[in-house]
TrEMBL record, chains A, B:
Keyword Cell wall biogenesis/degradation: no
Keyword presence, Iron-sulfur: no
Full protein name: AcrR family transcriptional regulator
All residue ranges annotated as the HTH tetR-type domain in the record: 18-78
InterPro entries: Homeodomain-like_sf, HTH-type_TetR-like_transc_reg, HTH_TetR, Tet_transcr_reg_TetR-rel_C_sf, TetR_C
Pfam families given in the database record: TetR_C_11, TetR_N
Length: 208, 208
């Protein structure tokens, strides 16, 4: 049944829905870029997407929801174009190498001009609006952080990370510096930089 | 001459200037809290402070300048109240202990309700406006980062930090995680947390 369904063309209503969904995502991202998050409204998104307000409310409960899913969709598309699955993390057995690969991919994403403006608009809103910020993290950031934690736990099992280390805090030693440089323009972002973060975090600043 | 000057009461014009400066700082911080950075104007600040626009333009070239100096002044006041000089960094010879003291003081500042709203308003603007963000970092963050670098260099000279380490990147291993948790609401902030960051950064995640 499922297999047959997947080879059949989608029924007209599904195709229409998919077209509307995409128009709504595009409108939401375009508006947040043009007028900023506070002035983006469900009405504005509906008008620009050429759909009724009710179509949006049928699928999403707020503009925050629409925008975050629109952005998530954009990020997933970009991940696939970059040739990697959005929520997969390499485990070659070499922790440093795996972390460097993932952080280099993040550098590429942060430098992708399609992301730059919408992701900054959403992040800025998250700074001043805690509830929105927490939703943003839960939807956009936490799934990636979970994968780092899983990879660090596997490294702990393999004896490559000290047993007492809390993986949730450990991952911040390389994830947060990159995030702060991007958020606050505190320094340039490059592969060399993220590679260095991984080396410093794994081996420590103090002599061994 | 200088000593005599400091015990004399300030001349009237100096006192008036000081009173105006303070009124302008208070007005600027209050406005950015109430209406946000984009809607805060020099006109609005002048009206609220009860001074002419020209008084503001005599001392500052833009609203960004006024706001950053108002915030810097607030931060310096709070530092002094907290019993520590704003731009001093302990060097007891114990790097871990010194870093923990400074980061604990930063935790206190980040949790100070007087800072919370204005510093978030400024930081959010910095996320979407690179030029503003760079000014903010240069005025508010860089002086502290310079002190971390100095302390790390002293630790390098004392053989407590490996010679090849770049202090500018090294400091991010404990400064950036705290910054990201605060900016993005990615986790709670506590003394225990910043102490842990220092231990992980100095000793590394990998077994020794």
């Amino acid at each position: 049944m499922a297999a047959q369904k997947s080879v059949q063309p989608a029924p007209d209503s599904t195709r229409r829905s998919e077209k509307s969904r995409r128009a709504i995502y595009d409108a939401a991202l375009a508006l947040v870029v043009e007028v900023g998050y506070p002035k983006t409204t469900i009405e504005g998104i509906a008008a620009r997407a050429g759909v009724g307000k009710q179509t949006i409310y049928r699928w999403w409960s707020s503009k925050a929801d629409v925008l975050m899913e629109a952005f998530l969709d954009l990020a997933e598309q970009a991940s696939r174009e970059g040739g990697h699955e959005p929520y997969a993390f390499p485990d070659t057995g070499d922790l440093a190498a795996d972390l460097k690969v993932v952080l280099r991919a993040t550098v590429d994403e942060l430098k992708d001009p399609r992301f730059e403006v919408p992701s900054r608009a959403l992040a800025a809103q998250g700074v001043v609006d805690e509830q929105f910020g927490r939703q943003l993290v839960a939807k956009l950031l936490q799934p990636s952080l979970d994968l780092y934690m899983e990879r660090l736990r596997a490294a702990q099992d393999a004896g490559q990370v000290r047993p007492g280390i809390d993986p949730r805090i450990a991952l911040e030693l390389f994830v947060s510096p990159l995030a702060q440089r991007w958020l606050q323009h505190t320094g340039p972002i490059s592969y060399e930089y993220t590679d260095t973060l991984v080396d410093y975090a794994l081996h420590g600043l103090a002599p061994r």
